[in-house]
Batch of 2 targets.
Target 1
Amino acid sequence: MATVQDIEIPDSAARAAAIEEAQDIQGEKMVLNMGPSHPATHGVLRIVLELDGEVITKADPDVGYLHRGDEKIAENMTYTQFIPYTDRLDYLAPLANNVAYALAVEKLLGIHDNLPPRCQYIRVMCAELARISSHLLGLGAFAMDTGAVTVFLLTFTEREKIYNLAEAASGARLTTSYTRIGGLMRDVPPNWCDMVRQFLKEFAVALAEAHTLLTRNRIWVDRLRDLGVVSKEMAIDYGLSGPNLRGSGVNWDLRKNQPYLCYKDLDFDVALGSVGDCYDRYLVRMEEMKQSMRILEQCCNKIPGGAENKSKEPVNVADGKITLPSKEKVLTSMEELIHQFMLVTEGVNCPPGEVYFGHENPKGELGFYINSKGGGTPYRLKIRAPSFINLSILGELMPGAMISDVPVILGSLDFVMGESDR
Amino acid sequence: MQTQTEYGYNSKVEGDVVLTTVDAALAWFRKNSVWPMPMGLACCAIELMAVGASRFDISRFGSEVMRFSPRQADCMIVAGTVTYKSAGFLKRIYDQMPEPKWVIAMGACASTGGMYRSYAVLQGVDKVVPVDVYISGCPPRPEAVLDALMKIQEKIGKQPILQGTVAAKLLHLDEK
Amino acid sequence: MSALESANKIKAKFGDIVAGPTEFRGEISLKISDAEKIFDVCRFAKSIGFDYLVDISSIDNYGEDPRWTVVYHLRAIGNGEEIRFKTDVSEEKSELPSVLPVWRTANWHEREIYDMMGIRFSGHPDLRRILMWEGYPFHPLRKDFPLAGKPSDLPGVAFTQVTPMEGGPFVTLPSSSDSIAREPRVRVPENAERAISDKRLVDGKLK
């Protein structure tokens, strides 16, 4: 004969109450190492996470896996020899780093306000192209980490077009080393502005497509909204810069507040967020790309000398002690020969003193603090890396989030380890 | 390619020929599905991502499956500067890859330390893992990465696969 | 320039320990002669509007005494003023107060300075190395440290022990030959025969 048994299945509320009563049940927190080699950590970043189930209770980022000793290398070479190292800082936007470093050394020399106008316009165009390139990759990698793989291929196609532009101007796709102290490596080719205009036409379509894929996408918004909220005070206290700072509502853009090059003559808006969550930072970056397009359009129209430089505007400061003289003069005239010799062997002779110059890089404020005791090599070069400082907020942002939110937070901060570790 | 459906043939006469053909087939499968493990450390990783994107399409070579898990990968592409701090985990990941495995040292930094002759940079990843192909460039163009992949494919194509294995012994495939 | 006014306010408050302000290329610098007071100066600077710490740098004045100079770059987000503080620390002491309570961004800056130069910050809750690994014996950015570095032990971080799966049929045997010779090609694992012939096994189960 079958016996009838009553099985008690308490509902979840009763079960939770039962667990709370049993005080000796203590879950151990798991320590998970989100290691340096991880697809979603945007480079070699190690985060030691302490987890309570899926929820993070503590996060300790461990950087330094790409520390290459740039600052010590800088003390051993001339200012011009250091330019290729600046390419590799934020390797998603090498043109912007080149411009930042050249401006810092030119500030030390005292000529950063008096560059030839054509040089200023070309540098602005390079910086804005770099901004678009960096934001595109940040967006593509961010979307890919959260699962939206199409956006990655879309953005990379546009980045290839920017690589074509960089290659036409400087000869290299990624590590351009385009600027020099007092000017540029060479003038842009005659059809470059037309290539930029063509790119802008195609890019507008691609940006609109990325918007339709992501901005009002239910899954995207649900994953990004109200996550990783950084308040205004927190953003300023932690030294954030760039889109991370503006995403929290702080109106600080070095192009507007401390204008350099020809940004004063250009018309553009600064994108500001309101809440400071991941969605805001994403929207700020998308809007910044649109504003960069506006700046590029204006530069193409206003560039001194026009696209083909028929009036032969110079792109280098006309000072023999700063710019390398032309080869015909070097081989025929004594003074230019001596200048060439001194510039190549000893470098640009900078006065003793110290300067700090901050540049609005796509990742934030890339600053160079140069302490010089005179001569052609710096005594101390400190690189104020925006990604390094943006990462310090991770210990504060992650606790409370779930482990699947980690790629979202990392992607929205948009850092790059080459710059963070230098 | 000859197909073989039975093993009861006269191996004294045809043994080596069969082995070579099966080897060739297996090598063909292997070399057209090299799954890379992208050890993307620095700027070369961006060019590696560009190789995987639509313009340079590594998928034509069967390698778009960039497995970040070493247990599922064939070829580790070391893309970027290897620092002393990174050397430990790089070696450990290499150890975790199952055989057969190959290593591509992409770029100047992975090959020899590149332009970083400093206190923190390992002067070449071949100091910790054996490297099969070195790619020069800083960063190398994506076409150069594809060229290196083709060299690896050539190397795989020449490797004997069944010779000397337990399977060949059991099937009496190498008795004279 | 209002940065000059702020500099004069700081000078007025702190008197002789503040020297300057000096100007170079449009930047105002103040020299704080007593490094112990840097926390108070920074707290006062924050109260008059410098709420954003841009950067902390360190300089090694090799051959001079005091050997270290720590440089603080401050900015007021509200009106965009910038100011620089410089303070000297001698080598025997190599320590100055941390400004972490004033700006939380100082946390990682000070850890980096400790890592690279060896200057300690008193009051810092977690002063450990950040760019080099824990246990690295040197401070690389010092002028007497060579660029190519000195030999040291490789880090114990990132667990360099032997990976699991040793002795299995697909595992690489350590050797320096190329991949053709290394490939195990389904070799019989070392302990396989022993397992098959284990007399303790009866019907596949241990007696």
Target 2
Amino acid sequence: MKHVLIVEDEANIARIIQHNLQRVGLDTSIARDGEAALEEVHVRRPDAIILDLLLPKADGWTVAARLKADPATATIPILMLSIVADRERGLAAGASDYLTKPFTVSDLLDRVAKLLA
Amino acid sequence: MKLSPVAQELLWLYLAQPDLVGSVRDFSIFLTRSVDEIVSALDELKRYDCIRLTPDAEPAASGVVFVPLSSERRRALTRALDSGVRRPAASRHDGFAYAADLVGRDPQMSAVYAMIDRVSRTNATVLLLGESGVGKEVVARTIHSRSLRAGGPFAIIDCAAIPAALLESELFGHEQGSFTSALRKQIGRFEAADGGTIFLDEIAELPLDLQGKLLRALQMRQFTRVGGTSPITVDVRFIAATNRPLEAMVRARTFREDLFYRLNVIAITVPPLRERRGDIPLLSQRVLTALAHRDGTIPRRLAPDALAKLKGYAWPGNVRELENVLERALIVSSHAEIAAEDIVLADDVPTPEGPCPPIQSLREVEIAHIRRVVAVTAGNESEAARLLGIHRDTLYRKLRRYNIAVRPQNTTPRMS
């Protein structure tokens, strides 16, 4: 079963994402801030990461930079999630895809499926 | 059923994208509305059973899920929206159109959003730059509505529209008897905007003598009424806008340098529409929605070829021009979908990525137009004058002044 790490500080949004990923048969875990995310990737190596950008402790940009700098995590595809439409910067920071909030569930699932393909 | 404008916006969003998910904060940013406005709009929508809310201790972090839409529900909601839009207060500037103008996901706009976000929380003076029609007033309103001053007034002063002679009294007010027609004491716009935001549009048109007075008001938050002696203190935030190159005006000494620096604390440049063509589909959709909302009808869609035509145009008049073009298209179009042929662009030559055609002076346009009409009428000056809607004598004068040669009718060579 493929595993997706959801990095999102808003508990409700994290739960909604989790619910929908589980519905399509994915295994999930949630990290509520940047530092927790960086720990969690080493606990269970996820197949993909959904990464919100505005996070407590370490923001999404920092998390992405650290993941990409570490050979052990550099290849995990990242889907960035943000209220700011800044796709170009996201892709430059190493994200495989970028989604602006609010988003549709179908759009999210399509993109996650692409990352896992 | 009466829905607030924000609830209507959310409902439209739902009808367009029925499985949208986000926090209250996400929707507040997407619709450029305050968190409180979104919360109370969601409250209104609850009774339609079209949303699921997962409340959070912090309202902004509450989750919003639009539930799947059955055709029956779609009809019910469209009806609800219909009855909502017919309320008398639903005008185009009821907040709907201005939120529509700020819609856009093009990367060009994200810098603007980020700046709006940052400056909204401060009291800093903001200078908005950008071509005419890009929506500078919209940005100013958004900053105001998302600031702590949102409950206070938002006063617009168009420095180009008020005659220079009246401007000072308009801005600062006047005391009784300070000039001939000043029968009563009158407070000015600055005083009226106490506790809110003053938006000084077309700031470059402010006469030099008033620039000095404005500078003082900016520095001290203090001014004197015309004919008055005691200074009046106000608590206002200033946002100024212009489409003219202020720096060049400073060099030419037509704009005060000290005022320029005072205004230029935070500058936000709103990009022209041709530099964010990616937003044209979304903007068009929102404009059509706003127009349908105004007219109490169901919004119409754009056919793919119509959208392609809009995307290929240079938009010298920016978002304002897009609104006008779409409004005209709605009137002429008789189909369910707006077709490319319904869309009339000022310059019907598409310029896919190129720069906008150079702006001509009125004189150049006039010369070119007279030449064209004279050519079309084959030298018949009476006919040319009739087409131009001017007197023959006026036409003669213009022909002489612009040195336009007219080929006389009767010397046209005949085939024999």
